[in-house]
Design a protein that fits this description.
605 residues, 8-stranded antiparallel β-sheet, globular, alpha+beta, binds adenosine monophosphate, 19% strand
């Protein structure tokens, strides 16, 4: 396989109008980076790409269309050898996953001709599927891995300039999902699994001086509970060396440290005796852990003392990992509700929010790591795909016909758009379903803030409440629990159309027993906190029924997580679905079967 740094830069610096003086120094610098990470070379590459974003986008589109011109899908749209954006957007339609599903299925079934891409697709990615309730198949190839590494390197270069780390290890809560073979013999797994398994990932992590402290057998264990336990154990064994604590999404960090609260004394006992807990039954993990675990009573004593000395686990991370420079994960969008808890564990350790991407490919890097997670934006890398932006219309239907999408460099400041992706792995004008806001520009490429999933919406009639509205409402109501020293561990919602009028249902899992009076107050507060005019007016005239708060048995969200992992999703990629539709029957059933108390609002009389 080609060295990744060469191939990424190749695309940019080999175009005819690039002055040759630009090629030499960057290529030689980049070659060196394979061994040692050179932040300045990466930043220099990023600067030149973003200064020339329009041309880079044209080149990227041309390259994608040229390389895949023989594919059945592209031939169908008669581009007649034209690669310009106007021809492309007038010939090729905007699509959603549903439109491409038959093509992806043909690939998964082993089609022997080019379906979506010129070169055969050999791997299928399973998106986390938290939105629709079941994982989606998405084509994956080596070029997507390369773009992932480019994003990792770019944000790391900026991060490292601001917050340098020395040689050390990362406690990375990463988990491979189950992989399986499709009917046509293609390997299928989550995007994170496909990336973690790639040789490029290891090389890049090595160059960035942050290899995971856990052996591969722990990352790719068939049982994520065992995998998580061993990640924690490895973290403690190498506690002095840990420079960074990370996961893909912040949810796994919170989940991991909540687990730590429950298993810390067992971890100490393993360290004291050098004998791995009997609950770890996977032979490959036991063999791998035997190489890192040795009796160390002093370390066990120290950890025990520190755990006993903590109040409500505040500052757990700096106590356990004294050299940890920062905590790194995606903390935006549906991850924001976990920030509060994460800050408790983090004590004073800085939280840095990671990049923006999806199973369908990466979009932008966080190049301003000094900003707090709530202010994170993502600078689009113009060579990792061809991007279009669909202006938002009043209609919230994903398949509504609205204005035409515009190009990457044509977006307007402060406007919101849905992202449309054309990627290097066979997706053409693919509506990602994410809403972003342009909050500025880096050279000529936009900086985007994640707003919400477009179709994640609580709506009954004229009301429209997004994931963000739900989050704000939950945050406000959850403050009422603080007096009882309780917190909302996780939450989701549902529109109950079986009642007349229909109404919103909010599900909460709470950390302990709250009194009926407080929960009743929380329920009223939730109802009041949806301030959308359509909702308020509908509630006043009873066109929307009283909001219902249903309190769940402890462990319900764990059951939901287990359900998704059972479907092939990985803990690394898990996002709690914030709105569960009627078609997501299994999750709805888990929720409804675990309700212990329910309250009905009387906010509007
Ligand atoms: P997946 O289906 O597992 O590939 O998840 C991809 C989705 O996760 C994206 O389409 C976004 O909705 C969400 N996502 C990814 N990165 C971020 C981010 N940095 N901030 C907010 N949401 C994100």
């Amino acid at each position: 396989m080609k060295p990744i740094y060469m191939s990424c830069s190749h695309r940019i610096f080999h175009c005819s109008c690039t002055p040759s003086f630009l090629l030499k120094p960057i290529h030689s610098k980049i070659k060196k980076m394979e061994h040692k990470f050179d932040s300045e070379a990466v930043i220099q590459e990023f600067e030149s790409l973003t200064k020339d974003a329009k041309r880079v986008q044209l080149e990227t589109l041309k390259k994608i269309l040229k390389e895949n011109g023989e594919a059945e899908y592209l031939k169908k749209w008669n581009l007649n050898g034209k690669f310009d954006p106007q021809t492309y957007s007038s010939c090729v339609p905007l699509v959603t996953h549903k439109d491409l599903e038959p093509y992806i299925q043909k690939i998964a079934d082993g089609a022997s001709y080019p379906v979506l891409t010129g070169k055969p697709i050999t791997t299928i990615t399973l998106s986390s599927g938290t939105t629709q309730g079941k994982p989606k198949f998405v084509p994956f190839n080596d070029e997507l891995t390369e773009t992932t590494m480019q994003i990792y390197r770019t944000s790391f270069a900026f991060r490292n300039r601001e917050f340098p780390i020395g040689n050390g290890k990362a406690l990375s809560f990463i988990f491979g999902s189950k992989q399986f073979t499709t009917k046509g013999g293609l390997l299928a797994g989550t995007a994170t699994t496909n990336v973690y398994r790639s040789a490029q990932f290891k090389k890049t992590m090595q160059a960035m001086q942050t290899p995971s402290c856990s052996p591969d057998e722990v990352i790719f264990a068939p049982d994520f509970h065992q995998s998580l336990y061993c990640h924690l154990l490895c973290g403690l064994i190498f506690r002095e060396e840990i420079q960074v604590i990370s996961s893909t999404f912040a949810h796994s960090l919170v989940h991991s440290f909540r687990t730590f609260e429950l298993v810390w004394s067992e971890l100490c006992s393993d360290i004291r005796t050098g004998v791995l807990s009997a609950k770890i039954t996977v032979p490959s993990i036991r063999t791998a852990m035997a190489k890192v675990l040795a009796p160390n009573p002093d370390l066990a004593d120290e950890i025990q003392k520190k755990c006993l000395g903590l109040t409500d686990w505040t500052g757990l991370i700096p106590e356990m990992f004294p050299n940890c420079k920062y905590i790194y994960a995606i903390m935006t969008g549906s991850m924001e509700p976990y920030l509060k808890k994460l800050r408790v564990y983090a004590g004073g350790v800085r939280l840095l929010s990671a990049d923006y991407g999806s199973s369908e490919g990466w979009i932008g890097a966080n190049v301003n790591p000094d900003l707090p997670p709530e202010m994170t934006s993502f600078t689009v890398l113009p060579n990792i795909g061809y991007f279009e932006f669909l202006p938002l219309t009043e209609s919230n239907e994903v398949d509504s016909v609205g204005p035409e999408p515009i190009g990457l460099t044509d977006v307007q400041l402060d406007e919101e758009y849905e992202v449309v992706v054309t990627n290097v792995a066979g997706l053409y004008r693919y509506r990602l379903g994410d809403v972003v806001k342009v909050i500025g520009f880096h050279n000529s490429t936009p900086k985007l803030q994640f707003v919400c999933r477009r179709n994640l919406m609580l709506t009954i009639n004229i009301d429209k409440n997004t994931e963000k509205d739900l989050q704000l409402s939950v945050e406000t109501a959850a403050k009422l629990l603080a007096d009882e020293k309780l917190e909302v561990l996780d939450f989701t919602s549902h529109v109950d159309l079986t009642t007349d009028p229909a109404h919103y249902v909010i599900f909460w899992e709470v950390s302990g027993e709250a009194s009926d009076a407080v929960l009743k107050e929380c329920c009223n507060c939730l109802d009041k906190s949806f301030v959308d005019a359509g909702y308020v007016s509908s509630r006043k005239v009873n066109a929307i029924g009283r909001l219902e708060l249903r309190v769940l048995r402890k462990g319900t969200f764990q059951k939901i997580l287990d359900h998704y992992v059972g479907l092939g999703s990985a803990l690394s990629q898990f996002k709690t679905p914030r709105c569960v539709g009627p078609s997501n029957r299994k999750v709805l059933q888990i929720l409804c079967n675990n309700v212990v108390k329910s309250y009905v609002s009387n906010t509007f009389g």
